[in-house]
Specification:
alpha/beta; Metallo-beta-lactamase, Chain A; seven-stranded mixed β-sheet; 27% helix
């Protein structure tokens, strides 16, 4: 039974009671971390040997609230004696800067004690994770979140590709969709057309009505809302009831608490 542990459900705005984006998925015998917002290494350490045992980290995009905990995770794995290889999937333009970041923090890849398998995302290009039962397939879907957020900033570098992704994770009949951060709810339309066990969607960059409009005809068993804007995070029960009313076709609507574990 696939299990989701919501290590960090907050938005990019720091708050006292929410950590940055990080979700641990246990599926097909593998532990896969979706995004590495800080302090993910502490949350994993609190769960036993996961810092040494996780199989892969999937980074949706380069914003600090989704990747800022990665160096501490690598250092923690080194200090805890990890020797198991780690698969790290992320936008291709992030690989060289992250490796330089590790070097600048006085770590060395050779000194970690385990190998890092750097795998770049390609739009709709599947990455396979073989398991004893059947392959886990991760398919990234490009979106325009970074392009929308970054390119309007003063001093923005027009040459940066601004790659950001939503993710589809499939294992047999189980299909999980992760929105990542989006420029609009409409970017979910292609993923929402797929029959899915669960959609984990952000709700910071558009409103609940816009999300519900996209999901009206979706064949979706469960919806998990994370990365909430300030307005929604202040009254989570009202938001859950509103989404249940707007989406009677969805079996369950969850707004996970920090550290909550859900089975699907």
């Amino acid at each position: 039974m696939p299990t989701f542990s919501f290590l960090g459900t907050g938005s990019g705005l720091p708050t006292a009671d929410r950590f940055f984006s990080s979700i641990l998925l246990f599926i097909g015998g593998l532990h896969i971390l979706v995004d590495a917002g800080e302090p993910c290494v502490h949350s994993l350490r609190d769960r036993g040997t996961l810092v040494r045992d996780i199989d892969a980290v999937l980074i949706t995009h380069g914003h600090v609230d989704h990747i800022g905990g990665l160096p501490a995770l690598l250092q923690g794995a080194m200090l805890l004696g990890r020797d198991k290889p780690l698969i790290l999937c992320l936008p291709s333009e992030m690989i060289a800067p992250v490796r330089a970041w590790i070097h600048a923090l006085y770590l060395s890849e050779e000194g970690l004690g385990f190998s890092v398998d750097w795998r770049p995302w390609g739009d709709k290009e599947p990455i396979l994770f073989p398991t004893v039962e059947s392959d886990i397939i991760v398919i990234p879907h490009a979106n325009r979140h970074l392009a929308t957020c970054y390119r309007s900033l003063p001093g923005a570098d027009a040459t940066l590709p601004c790659n950001s992704f939503s993710l589809q994770i499939v294992h047999g009949s189980f299909r999980a969709l992760f929105s990542g951060d989006l420029s609009s709810a409409a970017e979910l339309a292609q993923l929402a057309a797929l029959s899915a066990t669960v959609l984990v969607s952000e709700l910071s960059h558009f409103d609940a009505g816009q999300l519900a409009a996209v999901l009206q005809s979706a064949d979706l068993k469960s919806l998990c809302l994370v990365h909430l804007s300030e307005d929604y995070s202040s009254d989570r029960e009202f938001l859950r009831e509103k989404m249940e009313e707007l989406l009677p076709n969805v079996g369950d609507v969850f707004i996970p608490e920090e550290g909550e574990v859900l089975d699907f």
